[in-house]
Amino acid sequence: MPPRRLREPWRSFLRALDGHLSQPTALHCLGGFVIAEQYDLTRSTGDIDILESRGTDPGTIARLAGKGSPLHERYRIYIDIVGVATVPEDYERRLTTVFTGEFRRLRIRTFERHDLVLAKLERNSDRDREDVERLARGPGLDVSILKSRYERELRPLLGRPDREDLTLSLWCEIIEEVNKERAT
């Protein structure tokens, strides 16, 4: 299977950002951009959520490609540096580098789908629940992997794990329902 190609306007936007970078830079991406571009699921978004920038500091990335930047004005999309997010402890080991060969200095690293779901758990918005269902219908989600990572890597980091326990339970029900539909 050939590697996925980055769609417009993301391709031009990220190539323009790449042209402004003075050193190799890896962006750890999550959110709607990853759902749409990495997992090829229908999802509209106007930004790329970045948890981490390695090689170029996040302030420089925001100045170059954040909300209100010249690249934002030109392409009508932007990079959003996620200030606070509780993510699985070992997410970095599971990051995937995507769109290799597209850029000179920029590396786009995306969250694995179970980590992506767990990163949305605390917020639990309507859009987050829709994303869980999208991922369950698309590449699929394994409830046992989700529960295991939650218990080992995320729950110990949470301020109110009892609330997130309930959210995880609800999301597992959504995933199991989708899995039943897929099986019939």
Number of strands: 5
Total separate domains = 2
Tell me the major beta sheet: 5 strands, mixed
Ranges with pLDDT <50 over ≥5 residues?
none
Main β-sheet, spatial strand arrangement: 3-2-1-5-4
- The helix/strand series, from N terminus to C terminus, equals HEHEHHEEEHHHH
Kindly estimate the percentage of residues that lie in beta strands according to DSSP.
5-15%
Tally of separate helices: 8
Termini gap: 27 Å
Given the helix and strand composition, which structural class is it? alpha/beta
| Average predicted confidence as pLDDT | 93
Taking all Cα atoms into account, the compactness measure Rg is 17 Å
- What is the general shape? globular
Structural account:
This protein is α/β, with parallel strands linked by helices and 184 residues long. It folds into two domains: 10-112, no CATH class; 117-183, no CATH class. The chain has helices at 10-20, 32-38, 58-65, 70-75, 113-120, 126-137, 143-154, 161-183; strands at 25-30, 47-54, 78-81, 96-98, 106-110. Strands 3-2-1-5-4 form a five-stranded mixed sheet. Helix 6 packs parallel to helix 8 (161-183). It is globular. The two termini are 27 Å apart.
